Amino acid sequence: MFERLNRQPADKILALMSAYKADDRDTKIDLGVGVYKDAEGNTPVMRAVKEAEKRIQANQTTKSYVGLAGDPAFGAAMKDLVLADSVAHDRVAAVATPGGTGAIRQGLELIRLANPEARIWLSAPTWPNHPSIVKYLKMEMAEYRYFDDATRGVDFEGMMADLRTVAAGDVVLVHGCCHNPTGANLTLDQWDQVISLLDARGAVPFVDIAYQGFGDGLDADGAATRKVVAAFENVLIAASCSKNFGIYRERTGILMAVSKDSDQAAVAQDNMNFLNRQNYSFPPDHGARVVTEILTDPSLRADWEAELEEVRNTMLGLRRQLADELRQRSNSDRFDFLADHRGMFSRLGTTPDKVEALRADHGIYMVGDSRMNIAGLNERTVPILAKAIIDAGV
Ligand code: LMR
């Protein structure tokens, strides 16, 4: 049977992770996979996570199953964190999922159950796993323009022009904050325009929010998602705890689905529980429990928020340092966009052969579309990267 299998196309981000590992130059710099690293290149366990784990270990009396949707307390805490009071919480069905990817997958499956004809609109570009999963599920896919290669900002006119062709019932996937892979984001005023347009088209928004707290702060980063949720009868939200809690390998995420009232939310909940059962039965619990412990304990929460702010400010400082270095070395302001971008990533906006030259000649690893993980830098390596970028003729 297995002789009938063909190899799958490599995931660009994961392939880069392996290539970096295999490179034995000690000057190499990893700007690939989206994992936060401190100045020493470590991805530390956050202080509040350590403390929450200690408490769980001391107090947990059973490892028995929790429930198909996961712990309701996790659902409630995540609704508060992501949605705040933008919608009555009894209109929101929620299931814990294995990471943000699990939430995307379950969300798409829910859409397929509800409306198999729906086309899924993705930003061009987007996180490569989005189109990969949509294709795997054999759902119809469409793209809307998003990034302007000239300004390295959002191509807002192009985006609106493409979204004007969305059909009623189509699903439009948007990044709630910290767009991956570009780092370019809509202003709140632009969000209002997108919301009015999608509402007029009868579209259903699907918000992927994987970096809340990495851009302008927890509430500022949740603002667009909350605007969307407040404006539509139906919204899907996939939220990840991998990055803002630094619990990548625990696979902690949540799918939330907003319905027009609590009765429909109960039906959506039933379908989401069913989908969890079909795909993996009960979702993982440990990471979700850690998150709940942190979000519901005032002192743990304060410490988590403080450390998240340190992480966010470190990345902002690196962005400013890199933009300044490049301003000096290029004698121009053409890299200033790096300081305006938000989140973990920036798309440098250069060609694959220059990305390859940066890897081959300088040991600098970024994704082929020139996405850089800013958190892969530190104060010492920023000037090295800036010099390499200019040397490579970017
Ligand atoms: C990324 O975009 O690098 C992260 O979301 C990690 C991943 O799974 O691709």
How many H/I helices?
A: 14
**Mean pLDDT across residues:** 97
Distance between the termini: 48 Å
The CATH topology annotation of the largest domain reads as Aspartate Aminotransferase, domain 2
Architecture of the largest domain, according to CATH? 3-Layer(aba) Sandwich
Low-confidence blocks of residues: none
How many structural domains are formed by the residues?
A: 2
Q: Return the CATH class of the largest domain.
A: Alpha Beta
Helix content: 40-55%
Looking across the biggest beta sheet, what order are the strands in?
Answer: 2-10-9-8-7-3-4
What is Rg?
A: 21 Å
Task: Give a short overview.
With 394 residues, this protein is of the alpha/beta class.
Structural write-up:
This protein has a seven-stranded mixed beta sheet, with helices on both faces. Helices cover 47% and strands 14% of the residues. The relative contact order is 0.17. It has 394 residues and is α/β, with parallel strands linked by helices. The chain has two domains: 11-46 and 301-391, Aspartate Aminotransferase, domain 1 (Alpha-Beta Complex), CATH 3.90.1150; 65-296, Aspartate Aminotransferase, domain 2 (3-Layer(aba) Sandwich), CATH 3.40.640.10. It has helices spanning 12-22, 47-59, 72-83, 99-114, 129-136, 156-163, 188-201, 218-231, 262-279, 286-296, 298-330, 337-340, 352-362, 381-391; strands spanning 29-30, 92-97, 119-124, 140-145, 147-148, 153-154, 171-175, 204-209, 235-240, 253-258, 345-347, 364-365, 371-373. Helix 5 (129-136) links the parallel strand 3 (119-124) and strand 4 (140-145). The protein is globular, with a radius of gyration of 21 Å. Bound molecules: (2S)-2-hydroxybutanedioic acid (LMR). The site of (2S)-2-hydroxybutanedioic acid has 5 residues, from loops.
